[in-house]
């Protein structure tokens, strides 16, 4: 069977481009697991693939990196939703729907599966398992509730607020009785944040001359919680606006991923961590997947009761996957960016 | 009575120089509080003045600074030990020995005293109340025990390890069953750390080509706790050497104080906060002075039993105070730098 793949051409230096990835239309795969292979292998048909900023960090060979670099010449990997076609793994059987880490290709042999969950609730859009019901949902839940421990009335700022995680932070903040403001890169997204996602305020950071002043406008009394998805210059602008004893949840730093090897721009006012008694806590969502069942118990009723919604941005077909991934870094996506490989 | 003062000439830009401070030998003072003045005023004779890195940040006019800037033309202020000559304050009476914030001059009217403690234990060297029994002692205690919550066997790194705070971190770490390494700027200090203060290891960071490599040498399995007194390039070198879930106590960032207004050099790899799930907690010791009595109960027996020692570096006379303060920023001091104004 033919098995179209998205392959990493070479390690990437600087800004990610579509041409750093190649569509390989000549690969093939046997749709049955080979005899005598691994006892834990699962063969899946990929349905939805998730475009996540952290994937850029796997395209550069870094010393001491948490993430293993992708291998040039091989398909890249990421979170996705898939259907099991064949399995030697005791937890998965043919016909199961699953979400977790898979390949950017039509079919993948996952052997052994490291992060793979059986989808229990098939009454939800399957694509949600790349977003609100998958890794970004868990990141929002953990990063906001576990890391920030928000209290009613607190002032919350979230960057990349219309993204996969940010849109949930705003909604969680409102459910927790907080005042929440989000930043995004277009007027369309700002309107979404205010009119559909329930943010108290939102602004287009591309249109602000002075980010520090913009934050002062929306937070005259300062920020209690900053949910940081971007790092860099935005973090630098946030620090002077933090209140004493404020908390920063360091979820991601998308502004840095295209130049992790370089002397990246960064908060040059980190001394404010001291004088404002700030706490910054980084976290990796993989360390919290044991909480996934608890998360599902909380999030499912919220979705069903219409108390939380989720915006997705679909790219159709593997051939459009590289552009979708690259688009994350210029904010082209509105909501969770994903790729439809097949609908069933 | 004449009252020699050290006066700030002008707001300071860039590197602090002795000439930024002026010795004013023509000021006078009446050694009796004026009738009808503040009901809370205390008139003191200054004995020992503390040279602390944070004082540099009060010499530049910064927006949103935690510390109020000194007034050009007026004596600078800082922690010190003094004797009460006259008092309208109910908590202090003539003859009391006190420590807290006072002026860089022979005599000061403190009105009202904001941070001023009556010295209960006069059987200790009075100079200790600028160091181990004063603000730096509290900073070490709070920053290590309250912020880092060290566990037996953990690996601790402290920068500026032979300074007022650093020398205590090493000794606290050993008392807590930790492995501790310190960095300092001369061979003499490194020897002190290893031979007198009980650090497991110490190194001269001025002699290291590659700080990252130096840290790898001393921490092959990584750092659990970094007690940061310097910030900047050292923090940048530490981040890749932190273990997952490591903690950073942000006590001070002396490397940054001479250029807080500039685009200071900083950790350009802050993304490691995310991938290593690190926690960085800044703190201001003033927020913890309610714990001073508890601290004294703990530290006094340790000193008396010889389980903890303290190295001081004395400058004699107010006329030598500017050089002593400036010397902090090139690491001239060995141990706690203080100025002797008068011995009683």
Entry summary:
The first copy, chain A, has eight helices and 15 strands. Chain A has 344 residues and is α/β, with parallel strands linked by helices.
Structure description:
The structure is a homodimer of 344-residue chains. Chain A has 344 residues and is an alpha/beta fold. Chain A folds into 2 domains: 5-131 and 311-340, Medium-chain alcohol dehydrogenases, catalytic domain (Quinone Oxidoreductase, Chain A, domain 1, Alpha-Beta Complex); 135-286, Rossmann fold (3-Layer(aba) Sandwich), CATH 3.40.50. The first copy, chain A, has 8 helices and 15 strands. In chain A, the strands form 3 sheets. In chain A, strands 3, 4, 5, 6, 7, 14 and 15 form a 7-stranded mixed beta sheet that branches. A 6-stranded parallel beta sheet of chain A has the order 10-9-8-11-12-13, covered by helices on one side. Chain A has a two-stranded antiparallel ribbon with strand order 1-2. In chain A, helix 1 (135-148) packs across helix 2 (166-175). The longest helix of chain A is centred in the middle third of the chain and has 14 residues, at 135-148. The radius of gyration of chain A is 20 Å and the shape is globular. The two termini of chain A are 17 Å apart. The model of chain A is unreliable at 262-267 (pLDDT under 50). The A-B interface holds A 57, 63-67, 231, 235, 240, 250-253, 256-257, 260, 262-284, 287 and B 57, 63-67, 231, 235, 240, 250-253, 256-257, 260, 262-284, 287. Chains A, B: Keywords: Oxidoreductase.
